[in-house]
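Why show two proteins at once? Because comparison is the fastest way to build intuition. When a single record is shown, students tend to memorize it. When two are placed side by side, the eye starts asking what differs. So, the first record is below.
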Amino acid sequence: MDENSTLLVDVKGLNIYQDDKLILQNVNMHVDVGEFVYLIGKVGSGKSSLLKTLYCELPVVDGEVNVVGYDLKKIKNSKIPMLRRKIGMVFQDFELMNDRSVYENLRFVLRATGWKDKQEIETRINEVLKSVGMLDKKMSMPAQLSGGERQSVSVARALLNNPPIIFADEPTGNLDPESADVIVDLLYKLSQSGKSVLMVTHNHGFFRKYSGRIYTFGNQTVTEQGDNKIAIAIDDLDDMGTPVVEAFEAEIDSNVQTQNFASQPEEQQSDPSTDAQGATQETQGAENPEINSNDNVQAQFIEPQSENIE
């Protein structure tokens, strides 16, 4: 990637496979510095497969993919942990370690990514928790927190190493509407401060309040919808009620499928592929006794620097 480029994600002509099965074809997309970008589509349409490709859980076979300066078609395995440290991950299910306090959850990540000075660790934890309004919950256990509070801690964890981009995979999927709005507001403010956010969501209500570019997934393809057209349509439909918004969602999906179906070779039209589920997760830091099987999701984005993490 050009050193002067402001693109954090640049994808051209990407085909994504799982177990030799085509999931997405000819994907072209980009994420610039400070952008808020939505990925929308039905379950099984390939959204998670795209994210997995962007953080190197699925390999790049066809096409070109650059993420935070790394060419993912040429990246060496030894460099993947460095790539993942530049990506902040926010998961639908929070992925906090339930046997440790909020403080210990965050300290684990910092220690595992090379932080050693106790005062610097303390300062950084306080900074990120304050930024998401959770400083007063520092010593709480995850079970003592509401869903929204746990997700706020997850956002704080994603910010620890100051990554330029956040991947948020259905971050509001397990939250009530009020808590969901708080989380998206946090993420949107991060984009306004200069970080990029790539968010998977099914909640079209966010589009009007939080503007951003939109990519829709359907029939093995990804289509950029822009932001103005969608925002205006959602704004008009909102006064008519939820059923009309749902109809609009179905219309978007239908339009994408119709356009792409017509462009497919005849032999593909009769048997479109759907998204494969459950790619094998890669565990980082297997040699570290503190990182066990329960920590494998976090460990995908950290590489321990010492065998003795306290």
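Second record. Ask yourself what differs from the first in the token line.
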Amino acid sequence: MKQLLVCISILLTFNLGVFAEEPLGNDLDPKIVEHRHCHALQDLFNDALNLHYEQIIFEYNSLGPDLKTPVRLTASISMNPAVYNKEVAPRGLVLYNQFTTAKHRERTTQDAIDDIAFYLSKYQDLIAVSADLYGWTLTEDKPQAFCCPEITGVESIDAWDAAMNILQQEGYEHKGLPTFNVGYSAGGFSAMAVQKYVSEKRSDLHFDLTAAGGAPFDITTVYENYVKTNSTGYKCALPLMMVAYKENFKMPFEYKDVFLPPLCDNIQEWILSKDYNTWEINERIGLEANVDEILTPTACDYTQGMGRVIYEKFRDNSLCGPWCNWQPDTDTKYFIFHSEGDLYMQYFVGLEMANYLKKKGCEVETDFGNWGNHVDYAFYAFTLEAILEIETVIGDDISDDIIDNIDDNMDKITDLSDVIDFGGSSGMVSSIKSVSDIPNYDSRKYYTLDGREISGKPQKGIYIHQGKKQVVR
């Protein structure tokens, strides 16, 4: 674990609706296609980190975007060598939902072996399952179903069921282990989509913790904010969503109706071809482009016409908001993270999701502090806090090394991103801007990240104490 956090410290110096019916059961027909050894981050400091993990790559049956047509998809099971070789028993199971990908071979069964999330498997003796989803590997000639929750939920849980079958066949003891559902960015959206599907359709499944960060839970809020501010730090976000929705939901518009040149003339080359990653797409759209230089006036007006049609489709596929009425599993603990300094999408999208869960009676931990931009360095702060949340659920005694290194690395994130406050805003669930915002603040006491005083000895977690964030063992 100490190596994990040393790795993260080094990395921080770089700028880095309606769901388908029950699953296919035995018709999933899982088949292992490859065992591979992954050696990650070899190019970093001449392989000084020496990071290794094992993967079982498999195929399974699921459903396509219409939730009717059978498709064959791929997924991975990742674990550290000791667990893989059955020298150490696994401590938990993680459904890891990957972040935004746009280019060939960016999925977890392909070349994306440097994903920091797999360090959970390497250092914490967890087994991680990750679905490639529709539009990748075996179906790579098809458009990806980006931020399409019902499709994602079905395909991810089919992958989970298939993985459990494979683990049993391969002799891994996994029944009764704690289960975690984790994702950041588009992966955070996927994690909550999975939770919605499980809560509504799979009473036989349960996640002990769903941790989601930096995600567009309410797509309409993202859409509205981009248009109203005429700004986005992630130029390809709306185009990726609109293309996915047109292609997978057969929406009745032409690309010239919603996108301006040069984007409208290059959808096939820039997006559907999967020849470019997200930042290469951003560069082609224009890193300085305003929203009204990307979207047509029709698309910028979500109150009427085709803009309204798109807005309503986004609304129907959002995971929170006044129009949502799904009941999350209240036996699941939730961790919602979104940096106040996120320039890709505003942190109040996470605040909306946390508020929704709270109103539905769920236990919710949050962090909306200013941890810098989406990946600089919020992604790493989320990963560190998710590690702690997972350890808290597992309930083992957390070693001093784990706690000390998490604490040290959070301080380093804060220093590197020049954060001097705790972040936050108004709302039912929020973090605080500074200790002066806490009524009757007493530096000797412990407070949650949203400013609530803790009576007695605090449990394991992250708190405000003596004017700064501290990790309590």
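One difference worth noting in the second protein: The mean pLDDT is 84.
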